[in-house]
Amino acid sequence: MAKVIQSEADNFNVGDYVTGVLPWQKIITVDAQKVNPIPSKEVPLYLYLSVLGMPGMTAYTGLLEIGKPKQGETVVVSAASGAVGSVVGQIAKIKGARVVGIAGGDEKTSYLTDTLGFDVAVDYKRDDFAEKLEQAVPDGIDVYYENVGGALSDEVFKHLNQFARVPVCGAISTYNNTEAELGPRIQETLVKSQALMQGFVVAQFSDYFKEASEQLAKWVSEGKIKSEVTIDNGFNQLPTAFRKLFSGDNFGKQVVQVSEE
Amino acid sequence: MAKVIQSEADNFNVGDYVTGVLPWQKIITVDAQKVNPIPSKEVPLYLYLSVLGMPGMTAYTGLLEIGKPKQGETVVVSAASGAVGSVVGQIAKIKGARVVGIAGGDEKTSYLTDTLGFDVAVDYKRDDFAEKLEQAVPDGIDVYYENVGGALSDEVFKHLNQFARVPVCGAISTYNNTEAELGPRIQETLVKSQALMQGFVVAQFSDYFKEASEQLAKWVSEGKIKSEVTIDNGFNQLPTAFRKLFSGDNFGKQVVQVSEE
Hints:
- The structure is a homodimer.
- The model of chain A has no long low-confidence stretch (mean pLDDT 91).
- In chain A, helix 8 (238-247) links the parallel strand 11 and strand 12 (253-257).
- The first copy, chain A, starts with a strand and ends with a strand.
- Chain A is of the alpha/beta class.
- The first copy, chain A, has helices at residues 54-67, 85-94, 106-115, 129-136, 150-157, 187-193, 209-221, 238-247, and strands at 2-3, 17-19, 36-37, 74-78, 98-103, 120-123, 141-145, 160-168, 182-184, 196-199, 229-233, 253-257.
- In chain A, the strands form three sheets. A six-stranded parallel beta sheet of chain A has the order 6-5-4-7-8-10, with helices on both faces.
- Chains A and B meet through helix 5, strand 9, helix 6 and strand 10 of A and helix 5, strand 9, helix 6 and strand 10 of B.
């Protein structure tokens, strides 16, 4: 997120706030088409970096366009307390699904059930993860919203129901591996459960962004969707904050605040 | 396939031929709803076990309902000389795709290009498989019709294009493993290529069977789809013939003929 301090574009004025995929830089010159204006300052600005920004769009479109949860189905989401996962779970609840979140540590799992209203939260850092997951999905899994990958997800795949859908948003557990990490190949699982698995990048759903942002803003204003944020202060905190995405030490959307505003 | 020798069902007469998933048994009593009549004896009966039977339905529905190949796209199929794969490749050609078949040995690869009209055939049993595959798909892969699984398919996945589709029909290379065989996990590949992978069993597409069988019969009668068969004679050949499915020693549809007819 950035503030416009000089503009040659008709649709941006000095003082406007914009979001975009921007470099870690204090002052930048950017093509007006590469940034999006923030409609109002009525809600905290950081919401436009989480539930009302790309993470919210990613949650909304991946869950609803690929996962298509139905009333009474079981939805599992990994990295469930994160900026994307937390919104996925809350939308799935709104759609009438039973929602199981996977996260690491007591603080995050309690947040999922106590604050966000998930039905069950399972701690992947505990030794009894596989057992607790099995107990959490007595009717199997209809939608698994995949953010994490790795051994965690291998356990989830064991419980896929017939015609399950798996939107694959990311595999953050594996991004820092120098070699491909090995696991059970997925083909037999997909045939047995006649399941669909689809990788996506949010940009492919740009036609839905307007609908998604309006709907999300409505749910936020009605208190149906809550959004957590971890704010670190100061430009020099950027590397530390970035590393937290991989260690799991952040909570909700990781934001670095570089200005008083 | 069986011949009706006694019938209490209105729609079956003595002398009719039927197909179905039936046990290895010389005389059986079967529910009339579990078998399908063969419309005519104008074509060789074994075609109702291959291109005009379940393998043909499997090829047609998986390719067209999940793979959705478009004119000019590249379609790769594994177990390409088999009862399903050979039909997949020929339908993809009819739809205007560039078709690459993967099979084992000179005889099968030559059959694909010389008889069935595939654009390229790649021999997975040769040491240069990975290299030859790469050369065979200079524009990447848009549809991979998966019959085989294992290390062979890991190589194929390296070449998936953006928005590729992977109908997963089977993973015959792994069925006899007692433990899950390990390979690179698929999540990162799916996200990078925004690809769709979907396991299916032909029964899910039963609504399309009528359309599929009529279209396939038309293509067969026009000479656009050819079908190969390996016939072993004698009821006692069943176990040997079954094992050939896993060793790759059959050619096209494996049939055991137990009667003169």
